[in-house]
Amino acid sequence: MRHLKIYLAVTLIALTAITLTAQDKxxxxxxxxxxxxxxxxxxxxxxxxxxxxxxxSFYAGFFRDNQIMRLxxxxxxxxxxxxxxxxNEENKRTLHYVSVPLNLKFKLGPVFALGGIAPSFKVxxxxxxxxxxxxxxxxxxxxxxxxxxxxxxxxKILFITVEARYHWGITDVYQGFNNxxxxxxxxxxx
Length: 190
What we know:
The protein is mainly β and 190 residues long. It has one domain: Porin. Helices cover 11% and strands 61% of the residues. It contains one helix and 13 strands, in the order αβββββββββββββ. The chain has an eight-stranded antiparallel barrel with strand order 1-3-4-6-7-11-12-13. The radius of gyration is 17 Å and the shape is elongated.
């Protein structure tokens, strides 16, 4: 089963990479890079994991937008995201994901709104106890997959984009808790 999960993850990442690097003969595709702040927490029924707080981190990746109609675009991407929770600076759990955001974007002039899903594959997990880093035991690991839904908005001026996206995890990733995170970042189009 583990080999099937790895095969599916590699296939999805490869297909996304092919889409991101495909040659364009028209002017209906825009690609680029983006990065920014990622504030994450583990949440159940709107409540944070007991005694935890938001875990500030970052995200970075590539994106590609394909115009479907004049005001409607389909976006794909490949991102590295750090999620998790923290109790304080020396005690936290960090979940490292490779995410494949898929979205529909409604664009009116320089302003846009978007929504979609971001299938995410856990590539690493670290637990920090009193500042010492270790891998969690096999019975304390988080789920290998997450599929957060997201909504966002932003503005694009020339080749610079500034956007905010909020993600709601819909799968149990750790002891019944889901990922929730806010991303605020910027991108460069080329």
